[in-house]
Design brief:
Blueprint: E1 2-4, H1 8-29, E2 33-37, H2 44-51, E3 60-64, E4 66-68, H3 78-85, E5 95-97, H4 106-117, E6 126-129, H5 147-151, E7 159-162, E8 171-174, H6 176-179, E9 185-190, H7 192-201, H8 209-215, E10 221-226
Helix pairs in contact: 1-2
Length: 227
């Protein structure tokens, strides 16, 4: 479903409301719920808006869709962004599950995350993801190693280590198999260039990585967009 707005503020507020609804419904059914969120600039307003929502945050587990292999105080850290935007006020009571750990290599940490994700409330209540002009989502870039595994909706892998020429750092990413196990996927991005990529991505499974997300049938994808 497509939700189109005239301003980015309107799109962000609407996306936050949609995520709140998904969390509220899941928390009405079970004691705890899981929320996946992305980094980058696009979700900042959405996350700050969501942080002010009246939700039983102490019952919410927060996971990252992907992360650069950098310390959590690094400006490029998605964990740092989430702590500074979403985990504020009442939402600070939510339990964040970081991807980065200096006690392990990226590969080792990915294996541990596979195990820990399976112990969390599943399916995810909602996954908030963005999209790049190259059609990537999470850290599933067109040139990423393990891309086929990452886009296999039936894969047993929930997390993969990633290397891509677009980043100077190794990364970890949730796979499509993991993200599609969500009650709803909120796809939030802005600008006409990305909208053009989105429209082309819908035309076939191999056009862009995000094509796999848009064409899978497991989780409904709701687009929130503004120029």
């Amino acid at each position: 479903m497509e939700h189109l707005f005239e301003t980015r503020e309107e799109a962000s507020i609407a996306a936050a409301s949609h995520i709140k609804g998904a969390l509220t419904r899941r928390l009405a059914q079970q004691p705890e719920a899981s929320l996946v969120v992305s980094g980058g600039t696009s979700p900042v307003h959405c996350l700050t808006e969501l942080a002010a929502s009246d939700i039983d945050w102490e019952r919410v587990h927060v996971l990252l869709s992907d992360e650069r292999w950098v310390a959590p105080d690094d400006d490029e850290s998605n964990e740092k962004l989430i702590r500074e935007t979403l985990l504020q006020g009442r939402a600070a009571e939510a339990r964040l599950h970081p991807m980065y750990s200096d006690a392990f290599s990226a590969d080792e940490r990915c294996e541990l995350l596979e195990e820990s994700i399976r112990t969390l409330p599943f399916p995810f209540a909602c996954s908030l993801v963005g999209m790049g002009e190259d059609g990537h989502f999470a850290s599933l870039f067109p040139d990423a190693d393990h891309l086929d595994q990452g886009l296999d909706v039936d894969s047993l892998h929930l997390c993969l280590p990633v290397k891509t020429a677009t980043s100077s750092h190794p990364r970890l990413t949730l796979t499509l198999a993991a993200l599609s196990r969500s009650d709803v996927v909120v796809l939030l991005f802005f600008g006409d260039a990305k909208r053009d990529v989105y429209e082309r991505a819908k035309t076939g499974p191999d056009v862009y990585p995000v094509s796999g997300l848009l064409l899978q049938k497991r989780a409904p994808v709701h687009l929130f967009w503004a120029p």
